[in-house]
Amino acid sequence: MLNCSILFLVLILYCVEGSRCPDGEFDKWKEFRGFCYHFSERSATWRRAKEACTRAAEGSYIADILSEEENNWIFERLNTYHYYEDYYIGATDREWEGHFVWENSGESLDDTYTNWNEGEPNQHLDTPENCAEMKISNGKWNDIPCDIVMRYVCKLPVYEK
Fold this sequence. Notes:
Elements: H1 2-17, E1 29-32, E2 35-39, H2 46-56, E3 61-62, H3 68-80, E4 87-92, E5 101-102, E6 131-134, E7 141-144, E8 151-157
Parallel strand pairs: 4-8
Antiparallel strand pairs: 1-2, 2-8, 3-8, 4-5, 4-6, 6-7
């Protein structure tokens, strides 16, 4: 009986405490492995997407993707929304052509997990492609011009209670 009472108390505390992710305008945050993720319903250029993520919640940023597991989880979520456009992620080579880094940390993608589509990044037709997207068709990444308007993924460490 004591074990049931403890379990009941833990469940009540969890329900009262609520989510470790933000509420409000960006109320569709989803938690995964210590981070909260927001999948935008609005579209923006990469710069505006980055700004929107920063405004969404203190400490939020346009998402970096640091493991295959995280990439797969994000890809699965994107496909539940049934949108037809791809999503910006936080990789960019705006500062140094051909050297992609995560916007939030400045860490080189050469030193982290990557999931580029075959032949990417590629500066297609010599067009500046300094930002990255996740393809909703296969979860792979592609470099694209930063002024394309599309949805985006924001990321935020969970709130510790």
